[in-house]
Every structure is written in C-alpha cells, then in structure tokens.
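This part of the workshop introduces the protein records we will be handling. As an example, a complete record with its sequence and its structure tokens follows.
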Amino acid sequence: MKIDTANKNIFGVIALFLLALFLNTSCSGREYPYRAKLTVQVVDEEGRPVDNAKIQIVPLGLQGDPRFYERTDANGFYTREFRNNSVRIFYDVDKEGFYDYRFIYQYKDVENRKYVPWNPTVKVTLNRIKKPIPMYAKRMEITLPVMEEPVGFDLVAADWVQPYGKGRVSDFIFTGSKEIQDLWNYSLYLSLGH
C-alpha cells in the first residue's frame, strides 16, 4: 500500500494531536504535589464534643470529585491527611439536630512540600436547632417605586406594600434619595428601617 505525502501529513498531525492529548491528560492535575493535614474539633454551644458529625471535605483545586466524607470520633475530633494543589480547603460539618456549618480553611505557606501550619486544629461550634422558624429566600431585581418617602416591603409577598404593590405587611421600610449634579457626580442614599 502506497501512502502519498498528503496522507503522511494527516497521520503526522493526528499523531501529534494524540501525543499532546496524552501529555495533557497525564499532567493535568493528577499529581497533587503538596501534602496537607487538618484536624477539626466539633463542639456544641456548651463546649461539649459532638460525636458522629458528618464532615465533607473538598480540597479546592483538585479535579474531578475529590470529596471526602468522614465522621467525628467520640471526642468530636476528625483528622485527615491528603495531597492537594491549593492552599484552600472547604469543609462542611453536618449533624442532625444542629445547623450546618461551612467554612474555608486557608494554609499560610508551603515548606518541604507540606502546607503550613502542619495539622492545625480548627474548632467548629454547632448550634442546636431549638425552635425552627420558616425562612424565605428569593432573588429579585426591583426598583424603588418612589423616592424621598418611606415605602414598605413585604417579604412573604415579595412585593412592595400597597399602594405600590400587593404586599400587606411592611417587614422593611426603604427610603431612597438621590442627588445628581452631572453624569459623573451623583449620590444615591438608601436607608433601611423597620
């Protein structure tokens, strides 16, 4: 079988592409050059250890799904050592009957391929859920219906109170004012009251 010059060029391009793909795959974050170690101590509001709290660890900067799910021991402690390529580590602490606690720990520096400080202890206080209150969350983009006078906003209705909207209870009262001199010189004030 005879291969002409055009086919040789195509084979050469394909070979270079596959080689580049192989090198990129084999070097793209699969090696985590630095070692990290962190201890989390979980306590309640009175300082008592919280055992069997679920801890989710996400070393930021790792590819794929590098999550670790672990539990605290009888004394409320959990320690983990792993390899990472970012100085930041996200932790989520969860226990039934308590509010979740999330935080990001950031190491100060790297020495001898280890993040320092080595094995710091981070104390987490979980708050008990005593009398849960329903909460509402909603993202909105709205404008004040009038300036220079107070306007009530109803959180449940997610609207201004009457006569500017369908709200009934003024959970918050906004008052806006603005001073415009020209395109580059202006001020906008917003006060929030209840």
Notes: Residues 34-125 form a domain with the Immunoglobulin-like fold (CATH 2.60.40.1120). The mean pLDDT is 79.
